[in-house]
Design a protein that fits this description.
The protein is of the alpha/beta class. The chain folds into two domains: 115 residues, Ribonuclease H-like superfamily/Ribonuclease H (Nucleotidyltransferase, domain 5, 2-Layer Sandwich); 124 residues. The protein is 54% helix and 12% strand. The chain contains nine helices and seven strands; from the N terminus they run E-E-E-E-E-H-E-H-E-H-H-H-H-H-H-H. Strands 5-4-3-6-7 form a five-stranded mixed sheet. A two-stranded antiparallel ribbon has the order 1-2. The protein is elongated.
């Protein structure tokens, strides 16, 4: 684990001590990774790498060959994620730092200078890591955010369906609280299938609907424009696709969460065993 800054007294006054001698700094961008290690680690200590997977692995190999144990990198967009996960998986102590915290005040800004500045600040323990969940928690977060996007996409299709029906003067939304409940979907599917008789359509409504059958029938007297019916069909099919994707997403979240829980339980069991061993040694 990276150490924090430490002050020492000298004849000339207070001085910062290097607390992370095997530290590296990485300046992140979409196309390049500028990596800097201390000069005693390598003659060519400030190198530029690409961002392909093979480049990320090459960065890890080079850092290991240099004896680096801890790495600081700035959080630039989403470009840092895979390098962060690669280095973390390879055993490095990785600090993700807010770009504002490592702003270079003195020299002209270049990738090489930025990487060296990050490395220097980290070697003196002057950087504070932003919170980062472990890889399993990150997977759950990614999937949860994806599910939120699916919900928003499905909601947009519902709005498009409502618009198509309004343009045909179908007032189903005025008499049924949820047009995508059982009654609403049965009626919409019948419309898509070609049914145009308001009486037949209204008969598909569940008897428990608060609105009277006659009111529902009146709401379904419409101007049947085939282009709008086509739009209604397409939007409804997209809505169903998003619903199926959400179900798949739920299953994937459950799968990852189950694996994550198993990891947590295993870690807790290991801690308990270590604590019991220490207790036995003391007695």
């Amino acid at each position: 684990m990276a150490k924090k800054a430490k002050k020492i007294k000298t004849a000339k006054g207070l001085k910062l001590e290097i607390v992370n001698p095997q530290a590296a700094g990485i300046d992140v961008s979409s196309t390049e990774m500028q990596v800097c290690v201390p000069e005693h680690c390598d003659v060519d200590n400030n190198r530029c790498f690409g961002t392909f997977t093979e480049d990320l692995k090459a960065i890890s190999r080079w850092l290991k060959s240099c004896g680096i144990t801890t790495v600081a990198m700035e959080s630039t967009g989403i470009y840092w994620v895979q390098l962060f996960m690669t280095l973390q998986a390879d055993g490095f102590d990785v600090l993700m730092v807010n770009a504002k915290a490592i702003k270079n005040i003195g020299e002209k800004k270049t990738d090489e200078v930025d990487a060296e500045w990050i490395m220097l600040l980290h070697s003196y323990g002057l950087l504070k890591a932003s919170f980062q969940p472990d890889n399993q928690a990150r997977r759950i977060r990614n999937l949860s955010r994806h599910r939120d996007n699916l919900i928003r996409s499905a909601s947009r299709e519902v709005l498009h369906m409502q618009k198509a029906m309004e343009l045909m003067n179908i007032k189903l939304g005025n008499v049924i609280s949820d047009i995508l409940g059982k009654s609403g979907q049965d009626i919409i599917r019948a419309i898509i299938a070609g049914e145009r008789d308001p009486a037949i359509l209204s008969s598909l409504a569940d008897p428990r609907c608060k609105a009277a059958k006659e009111t529902i029938r009146k709401s379904l007297e419409a101007n049947w424009d085939e282009d709008l019916v086509f739009m209604l069909e397409q939007n409804y099919n997209l809505y169903l696709v998003h619903q199926r994707q959400m179900q798949d997403c739920d299953r994937q979240i459950e799968k990852v969460a189950t694996a994550y829980l198993a990891e947590i339980n295993a870690a807790d069991a290991e801690k308990l065993m270590r604590a019991q061993k220490k207790k036995r040694k003391k007695t």
